[in-house]
Amino acid sequence: MVRAQFSAETAGSGEFVRQPNRFTGRVTADSDSPPGGGPDAQGRWPLEAGRYRLIWCRACPWAHRARIVRGLLGLDDVISLGTVDPIRDERGWRFTLDRDGRDPVLGIRYLAEAYHTTDPGYTGRVTVPALVDTVTGQVVTNDYPQLTLDLSTEWRRLHAPGAPDLYPAALRPELDALMAEIHRDVNNGVYRCGFATSQAAYDAAFRALFARLDALSDRLADRRYLMGDAITEADVRLFTTLVRFDAAYHGHFKCNRQKLTELPVLWAYARDLYQTPGFGDTVDFDHIKRHYYGTHHAINPTQIVPLGPDESGWTTPHGRG
Predict the structure, then answer these.
(1) Residue 218, in any domain of the structure
(2) Which residue among 173, 241, 273, 276 is least packed, with the fewest CB closer than 10 Å?
(3) Is residue 321 a part of any domain in this protein?
(4) Where is this region: Disordered (predicted)?
């Protein structure tokens, strides 16, 4: 029997099937709840500066996208930020980077505590990002795709002056379709390669991943960003996978047809974004490698963390602007 990294999320065919997001509350501009109140009858939490705390891990691509969007929109002083250790123990994500091992705002040692405050019977995997209400200690949402879209739309009146429109209304049908393809084949596709427990499941995920990367290379050959001349949510979502590709996915997840550095268009595109304020300054390759190689024991039982690859290439000229 092949050992699965997450047995509850592995189908009989050996395919990795990611668990659904448990908490899907939303902070909205039209919530009927008063300041300090809980969700209204429709589950909408009130929009309040300083009330909510975004819990992220520097290693996690899903959490990384929320960190980037928060910064690009100028919400750093509106939504506080808590950071968990890249290494999980048997209780999950830990606040061991903070003094006394507790988040200084929420006062908890494990993100699981906030999950169980919200749902005492929760038994699934605890994930980041999580937007936590500092008034009740409850998780508002761990629904990472909707969270970043809401930051662009529902939080608009709290954006910094001149903040970019990462989710333009006129482009949403095309954006949504593109992001769905990127999620299926690339963002989640690398995990479908890495967590597969059958050759057939791995082969299918591998082929879909590189077919999509080839298509994205073609798309980006004559445009700077995925939707044209401006950065959108789609670029954020693709970047957080690309920046981890050579450091983790190429070797650890066996996504090894080519390295990112061997895909000229995508490598230049990724460097362009990395060198854009709000992107590269949020990347931590040490945390990325220590998390992937140090916590997936079924894939890397020795927990040896590689010393490479060389990171200096990320700051070399990209020629795309």
Answers:
(1) yes
(2) 173
(3) no
(4) 17-44
